[in-house]
Design a protein that fits this description.
It is built from 13 helices and 11 strands. With 297 residues, it is α/β, with parallel strands linked by helices. The protein has a 9-stranded mixed β-sheet, sandwiched between helices. It has a two-stranded antiparallel sheet with strand order 7-8. The structure holds alpha-D-ribofuranose and calcium ion.
Length: 297
């Protein structure tokens, strides 16, 4: 499958990207970056660093530096000032492209057969919303959109009972949800079930593979950064890796259809008219095995 990964790396974004870049079943044609966990210059530089560690050459196209019509709110408490929890990554092998994210997405969609280019969304949906307004003829050619975002029955993780990605840019989230795309949302209801503990970190390290070792270091940093939030909790959720994993192994997820809309005052998902595919459960053990295998192959 062909995919553009839209991302705000970000500790869990980095794990998802390392996995997707090296997986034989996914051809990542571009990384497009957005401000979210950290500012755009850092998310863009991190995208290049992650590709360098994966040993893969892939263009990085910078996108939105702020949400539609509001101030950016970073998550340095979780991802650290460098966005990667202080974990050492190599320098990017090449500078970011001079072509911006929306123009690159549009060009790639127009060059591909309609419906074959998927979007994997790991951050706020600002770039996707801009694509819908600025290049509607390209947006019509999008294949699947698999996005980590929202909280349906679970409580959110930011103010207003929202989840970070949708809460960071509620207007963009509302536009994308209502656009009639072939969208599957993976909310906190599912991603909080996909957890890594110390035993799993040991398994990652024992593979001796650089992407797996970096993933263990990233999750360790996640433990450090969030210790103040969840004392005594011996595992951390892996939100963004659920996106490429669902694209590859939909049978390992439980997907329901819910009538939803986005409360644009907070970004929270609330009952509404848009019938939306939402992953509400998953087979965590099998997915951890797939992630470990992909990061060490
Ligand atoms: O709520 C989790 C999401 O917010 C993930 O994408 C994480 O990277 C942060 O951006
Ligand atoms: Ca993210």
């Amino acid at each position: 499958m062909l995919a553009i990964i839209d991302t705000d790396p970000g500790i869990d974004d980095a794990i998802a990207i390392l996995f997707a870049l090296r997986h034989p079943g996914i051809e990542v044609v571009a990384l497009t970056t957005v401000a979210g966990n950290i500012g755009l210059p850092v998310t863009t530089d991190n995208a290049g660093r992650i590709a360098a560690l994966a040993g893969v050459t892939v263009p990085v196209h910078p996108g939105a530096a702020a949400p539609l019509g509001r101030e950016a709110k970073n998550e340095v408490r979780i991802h650290g000032a460098d966005g990667l929890g202080g974990v050492t990554f190599p320098e990017a092998q090449e500078p970011p492209s001079k072509t911006g994210a929306v123009a690159a997405m549009s060009d790639l969609l127009m060059a591909a057969e309609p419906g074959v280019m998927d979007l994997f969304c790991l951050g706020p949906l600002t770039n996707i919303a801009r694509l819908l307004t600025d290049a509607p003829e390209s947006a019509e050619r999008i294949g699947r959109v698999v996005a980590m975002g929202g909280a349906v029955d679970e409580p959110g993780n930011v103010a207003g009972n929202a989840e970070f990605n949708l809460g960071h840019d509620p207007e963009a989230a509302a536009a994308v949800l209502a656009a009639g795309l072939d969208l599957t949302l993976i909310p906190l209801d599912a991603t909080r079930q996909f957890r890594a503990d110390a035993v799993y970190l040991e398994q990652l390290r024992e593979t001796g593979a650089a992407p797996a070792i970096a993933t263990a270091d990233l999750i360790d940093a996640y433990f450090e950064q969030t210790a103040h939030q969840a004392k005594g909790v011996e595992s951390r959720p892996l939100h963004d890796p659920c996106v490429p994993l669902l694209a590859l192994h939909p049978d390992l997820f439980h997907v329901e259809t819910r009538g939803l809309q986005v409360d644009v005052s907070t970004g929270a998902l609330i009952p509404g008219p848009t019938e939306t595919s939402v992953a509400m459960g998953l087979d965590a053990k099998s997915l951890r095995d797939r992630l470990l295998g992909g990061l060490s192959s």
